[in-house]
Design brief:
This protein is mainly alpha-helical and about 230 residues long. The radius of gyration is 19 Å and the shape is globular. It has 13 helices and no strands.
Amino acid sequence: MLIDELQALYSYSEPQTATRFHKKSYVEGQIDYFVGISLPELRILAKKHYKTIHNTEIKNLLNDKIHEHRLLGLLILNYQIKSADINIQKQIAELYLQNIDFVDNWDLVDLSAPNILGRYLYNIQDFSLLYELSLSNHLWYKRISIVSTWYLISKKELSVTLDLVDNLINESHDLLHKACGWMLRELGKKDINLLTDYLETNYTIMPRTMLRYAIEKYPEDIRKKVLKGDFLWR
């Protein structure tokens, strides 16, 4: 059984509440549990089982208190949706949204949001859900909204990303600053002039972390000027 294969990979004798890459808690009252299974190991399991696993078992994984179990469930959905027609994509996206409250750490969001939610919403050309999530009071919903646009950016659908950054630019959490900066950087790979226009317009209100992430691909001399608010080089 899949659960037996998972447990055989545990590195920790007892679940831990933090790792080198995960803080003990990003949200008050939230506790995550880690058992030390690597992402490559989980990918092997996902590839092995994604064609035959039942939705009930996927849901059980997504609802599990163990972080790596939820990560495996999301990896399986990632593999399933890549080759699915639009009707199956809808079912996968609906399953994802039904369990969205369990997509509750940065790596769970980043691995799943673009490939599942971003892909489906791009294919149906309806981004209203992303705007709704960005305006919620929930850290992970907000991060899901902006990171989902990575898929849109890959298809040169850029305006949604800028709209969502507008919604999130005054947020205080560094995980949102980093996510917005990351998506702006990816947008810049498609249209550097559009990114520079946005940075010049929003320089005075943009958090410094967001700005630094956004300009990582600029030449060093330009990065230094942008950090000082100097756009005369254009």
